[in-house]
Design a protein that fits this description.
347 residues, alpha/beta, Rossmann fold, 3-stranded antiparallel β-sheet, 10 helices
C-alpha cells in the first residue's frame, strides 16, 4: 500500500488514467477539426473598405437618431413614450418636419405591435398620429403603410409567436414593439431576457436595413431600465431615446455611441402634438440659436421680456411653455440671474 501511494504521488499514470487521457485527446482533436473547418475569413473586418454610415430614418438638428438595428425608448410610466412613438411614426410616414425632427430616409412601411393598451386607447392614439401626419383621422392607417397590432389580450408565448410572424410576413422598414417587457414572463430572469434579446437581434439580422424600436419602462427609483432585460437592451441597442415630462412638456434625450442630438421637446395642445422648441424665426433650426436670438445684443433682460422673446424665437405656442423651458435652462446653468439688477444673462 505504501509503495502504491508513493507511485501515485510521483505522477505515474495507471491504465485507467491513460484511457481517460486518450479519450480527452480524441475529443480535443475533434474540436480542433471543427474549429479548423470554420471559415474565419467571413468574420474579419477589412479596415481598408469604405466605412458607410447607418441609413438613419430620422434626424434631430441634423443628427441621425433612428438607425438600422435596435433603438430603445425608455422612461417612467406616463412620461411620453407612446406619444414620442406617434410623433416619430407621423414624421417618418408623412415626410413633414416636426420642429427640429425631420425625415432623413423615406419610410413606406411601419409595423406597430402594442402589448399594453386597450384597443380604444390604441385607436385614440392612432387618430392623433394621423392628424400629426397631416391626414384625416378617419384614414385607414394601412393605406399609408402603418399596420397596428393589439396583443394585450393574448398570452406571452402567443405574443412572441405573433411578433416573429408579423415581422416575417409584413417585412417592415420600421418595427415598433410597445412594450417589449410583455413578450416575457419575468424581466429579471437572465435566460428569458437573453432569449428575448436574441429574438429582437435575429429580426434585425434577417433584414439588416430594418430599424426595430423597443419600448421599456424605467424603474421608479433608479435611472435604469427594468430588470435584467433592461441591462441587456441597454447593452445591445444602437440608440437610446429617454423620455421625461415636466409641466406638460415632454423632453426626449438622445443617447448614442455616435454623435448625440440636442434634447427634443414637444407637448399636447387641444389634443394635438406641438413642437415646443421648434425654432421658426430667421431660419434658425436649433434651441441654442433661439436662446441666443432672445438675448440678442442686450446686456441683460427682465424675466417677462426674456419669456416673450424666447417664445417668439423658439416658435412656442404659449408663454407657459417658454417659462418652463427657461427655468430648466436656469437650473442647468445656461442662464444666470444677477442678484443686484435682477436681470437675466446668458451664462
Amino acid at each position: 500500500m505504501v509503495k502504491n501511494d508513493k507511485t501515485a504521488k510521483s505522477g505515474t499514470a495507471s491504465l485507467d488514467d491513460a484511457a481517460t487521457l486518450n479519450d480527452a485527446l480524441k475529443r480535443e482533436g475533434n474540436a480542433s477539426s471543427v474549429l479548423t473547418a470554420i471559415d474565419l475569413e467571413q468574420y474579419v473586418v477589412d479596415t481598408t473598405a469604405p466605412a458607410e454610415q447607418p441609413a438613419y430614418r430620422l434626424e434631430i438638428d441634423g443628427v441621425g437618431i433612428i438607425p438600422p438595428g435596435i433603438t430603445a425608448v425608455c422612461g417612467r410610466a406616463k412620461q411620453g413614450k407612446t406619444n414620442l412613438l406617434n410623433v416619430i411614426a407621423a414624421t417618418m410616414l408623412s415626410g413633414r418636419a416636426f420642429g427640429t425632427m425631420r425625415q432623413r430616409k423615406k419610410v413606406d412601411t411601419i409595423l406597430w405591435i402594442d402589448t399594453e393598451q386597450s384597443r380604444w386607447e390604441i385607436q385614440s392614439n392612432a387618430k392623433r398620429l394621423l392628424r400629426a401626419a397631416g391626414l384625416d383621422e378617419q384614414t385607414d392607417s394601412r393605406k399609408i403603410g402603418l399596420t397596428i397590432l393589439s396583443l394585450r389580450d393574448v398570452d406571452v408565448e402567443q405574443r412572441q409567436d405573433v411578433t416573429v410572424s408579423a415581422i416575417e410576413q409584413f417585412r417592415p422598414q420600421v418595427a415598433i414593439i410597445d412594450g417589449v417587457r410583455d413578450l416575457m414572463h419575468d424581466f429579471n430572469d437572465v435566460a428569458e431576457s437573453n432569449d428575448i434579446m436574441q429574438l429582437l437581434m435575429s429580426a434585425t439580422v434577417a433584414d439588416d436595413e430594418m430599424a426595430l424600436i423597443a419600448v421599456l419602462h424605467k424603474n421608479e427609483n433608479t435611472e435604469k431600465m427594468r430588470g435584467h432585460l433592461g441591462t441587456e437592451l441597454m447593452n445591445k441597442c444602437n440608440t437610446l431615446l429617454e423620455c421625461s415630462k415636466e409641466n406638460g412638456v415632454f423632453t426626449v434625450k438622445h443617447i448614442s455611441r455616435q454623435q448625440e442630438a440636442q434634447p427634443f421637446r414637444f407637448c399636447i395642445e387641444n389634443n394635438d402634438y406641438k413642437p415646443s422648441d421648434a425654432v421658426v424665426a430667421a431660419g434658425v433650426i436649433n434651441d441654442a440659436d433661439a436662446l441666443a436670438l432672445a438675448f440678442g445684443e442686450d446686456d441683460g433682460l427682465q424675466w417677462d421680456e426674456l419669456i416673450k422673446r424666447y417664445k417668439k424665437f423658439a416658435g412656442l405656442s404659449s408663454q407657459n411653455q417658454a417659462r418652463q423651458i427657461l427655468k430648466e435652462k436656469i437650473n442647468g446653468g445656461l442662464i444666470r440671474k444677477d442678484a443686484t439688477t435682477r436681470l437675466f444673462y446668458l451664462a
